[in-house]
Request: fold
Amino acid sequence: MGSNSTAKNLVVYFSMPETTEPENMSREEELSTVIIDGEVLGNTQYVAYIIAENTGADIFRIEPVTPYPLNHSELEDIAQKEQSENFRPEIAGTVENIEQYDIIFFGFPNWYYDMPMIMYSFLDQYDLAGKTVVPFIVWLLGCR
Ligand SMILES: Cc1cc2nc3c(=O)[nH]c(=O)nc-3n(C[C@H](O)[C@H](O)[C@H](O)COP(=O)(O)O)c2cc1C
Reply:
């Protein structure tokens, strides 16, 4: 990345920390979060911050217009339904001038060995042709 100092980079990520409370977490909540200075971050969110910090990239968090539930089993049910219906959840907000970016870091948690469907919504909505796309995928065993 350092070889092209004029490149503009963007980190696009989706992350679903299953609680906002740093105390008394269930096992599932612990596994889907990182606590930094008392603030609860999702695992993918944490990796996204590290990438942005180290590359000077802009950052865009993909969030659904209809928020997902924090409850693990409710979230699983919705995720499975979305996957089986090949659904495209609507994204809140937009990336300004996506044309300006050369490198897109594209991060998401593994949901049933696929991307959360909202990542497909993003790919449908934005034309990334000609850009370097660097996926990063986070799951229980770490980041690949
Ligand atoms: C709906 C759903 C499906 C998941 N499916 C898998 C899976 O198939 N394999 C796996 O290793 N982890 C799976 N996980 C665990 C997440 O990948 C893992 O907790 C990840 O670190 C969450 O990242 P986040 O905090 O950025 O959302 C799943 C989690 C959820 C909520």
User: Anything to note?
Assistant: The domain at 9-143 is CATH 3.40.50.360 (Rossmann fold). The chain has a mean pLDDT of 92.
